[in-house]
Amino acid sequence: AALDWVTGVSVVLGEHMYADTINAGLARGLSFQETFGVEADGDLEDLRRTFLVKAFQRRQVALLNHLTGTGHSPETIAALTLFELRGLPVDDEGDRLRRRYLERRGVVAAADDEMPAFVDAAGLSLSAERFAAYVSGLRRVGVNAEFNSALCRGLLSVRFDLETPFVPKARASA
Fold first, then answer.
1. Backbone phi and psi for residue 6, each to the nearest 5 degrees, phi listed first
2. Helix, strand, or coil (residue 15)
3. Mean pLDDT score, 116-138
4. Confidence band for 69, pLDDT divided at 50, 70 and 90
5. Neighbours of 100 (CB within 10 A)
6. What is the DSSP letter of 130?
7. With CB atoms 3.0 to 4.6 Å apart as the test, which of 40, 54, 105, 109 could cross-link to 36 if both were Cys?
8. Sign of dihedral through CA atoms 127, 96, 101, 154?
9. 68 and 19 Cβ atoms separated by less than 8 Å
10. What is the pLDDT of residue 1?
11. Do 116 and 80 form a contact (C-beta atoms < 8 A)?
């Protein structure tokens, strides 16, 4: 819309369970909170942060599982600083998981090299004593995300001919 040659912009969301609500809010120029009213638990920035924290947690549990699977004890893992984690010898998969984790760690805590490498969503250090319970909790986050993904894939498969992506079944047969 900021380009001088653009005369108008119309944003329309399709194939989303809240498409009608979102489209009506966009058309009226409403905020996220105004669009969803009492259904909104915070504003759009809160929602974005929720998803960023979940991404952090998913990446963290993948790295924690890899490190324990390659023989690192909870005590060793919990004691690592960011500097030590960056220098920790790992295989290619561990390096990939470490890089992905570090990309999202800043969502919950500062990136000071002397800070603990592993913190929870509130930025508190992970302790060896609560390691197993913490990892178990992170696995629940993963199960929830996988469930939501499976639900969305299921709804899409009912709505669309998956052999020809994004073509509604009703139109494909016409």
1. -85, 125
2. coil
3. 94
4. very high
5. 17
6. T
7. 40
8. negative
9. no
10. 82
11. yes
